[in-house]
Write a structure and sequence with these properties.
Oligomer: single chain
Largest sheet: 5 strands, antiparallel
Number of helices: 8
Structural class: alpha+beta
CATH superfamily of the largest domain: DD-peptidase/beta-lactamase superfamily
Strand content: 15-25%
Strand order of the largest sheet: 2-1-7-6-5
CATH class of the largest domain: Alpha Beta
Shape: globular
Order of helices and strands: HEEEHHHHEHHEEEH
Number of strands: 7
CATH architecture of the largest domain: 3-Layer(aba) Sandwich
Distance between the termini: 76 Å
Amino acid sequence: MNIRKIKKSLMADKQKLAIAAVIIVVALVLGASTNYDQQTTHNNAKITATNLNRQLQNTWSKVDTDGITNAQIAVYDKKTSKVYTYTHGSKNSYPTASIIKVFILTYKMSLGELTNDDKDLATQMIEESDNEVTTEMVTSFGGIYQFPKLFNKLRMTHSNVNQTWGLTQTTATDQLKLLNELFYNHKILSQSDSNYIANLMSHVDDNQNWGVSSGVADDTMIQLKNGWLPLDDNYQNAIVNSIGHVQDDNVDYTIAVLSNGDSTQDDGIDYVSALSQATYKALSR
């Protein structure tokens, strides 16, 4: 065999081996880099969630509780995909007051398309917080004892009906399950049906501009529903709640703030609003 051909063949084989070795090294380096980046991102997410929880707990605990007997707050932060909670007092569940109206409309829409009359009722129920039309809507689908059907679908395991719809018992974390269905998940209602409810919640009457909407930036999108119910004369021993969704360039979260046994309705409104404002400030940093 020709010696020159043998040498050329050997040199070609060496070049191929060298190229293959380089490719393997590069692949290993890139793979290691990717794994490192993924692990770093994962660890950073954990660190962020842990730090955020610590920061929120510290912030919430500093809000003045004068005149407030029991309160709960729960927040789902889309950035970290985590739920953060805080409780003042010892109560486990809370009467909903008018925040139940979002649940009622969600249940009604889960049964099928709204009629024009239904839409009129829905507008008055959410935007104006009208109690009479709420009773009419509840009656239209068979009454309060239909509520557990949606409780079960949403796994709202700590919510229970009461003979009076406004005294239905719930927790802040259960309310997040409803809100997250409307603003993120869309498993029970379609995106368009969820948007319909969100639009109503973004046009509540001006006298309901408290709670979730407190202290946010001017360009922030807010969907909210408030509930308030003084159990004694002179607006004392009050239930004051606020639920909703807050989104702008810096934040995207759902929030539920519940309080019960407030000395006065104004005390409850001030406290719920202060918690909401503190939450926005912490999450927008």
